[in-house]
Hints:
By secondary structure, the protein is an all-alpha fold. It has one domain. Helices cover 54% and strands 0% of the residues. It has helices spanning 7-19, 43-72, 76-97, 104-135, 139-151. The model is unreliable at 165-197 (pLDDT under 50).
Amino acid sequence: MLVGDSDYGRWVGFLRAWERQEAGSHEADALPVLTQGSLPSTSWPLLVNHLVGAVSTRLGIWNAALTRAIAQANDPFSIGRALAQSRSGLHALRAVAGHPHLPGDLTRQLLEQVDAQVRSAQQQLEEQAARPVARGADTAQMQALLRAVRENPLTAVLAAAPSSGGQDTRSTAAGSGTEAGRGASHPWKAIPPGPPRRRIITD
């Protein structure tokens, strides 16, 4: 189906641009309200595929950016800052996945998948940070790193309702943490990639 000025076309055009990071989540606010019954039966599955693909791609981009930021963070302050900036990206992602102009059953499934990946990433970060503490290596420094991860959780975004709010701009707010551990080697290298794309039920 060609993308044009129809409701379908406007949504697909936005999703393609957003997937390429050429559009902000706030731009979806002007898009039409869609229901499964408002589109031809052949168009609805196509739209869902576009939506799932765009969210999956952006989740992968978010995960890769977080991995790079954590790999470059060597102290509690920079880890806290990396997690705070990562949460900004999650606000934008959840704004599209849970957009109020889409049917609630669809957005619930998308948000469940996004939120599950966020919880998994947070759990893995904590486990990797706690491992050296359990072994007793540089206890004070490692405790500071672990505390920074726990005090700046990625999962903090899950308590808020999805909202665009211009959150595509990366935050410069630093997370909590102290300078005492600056220069310490962080206890992890990377966050495993997200889960494979799951099927969204369209009927």
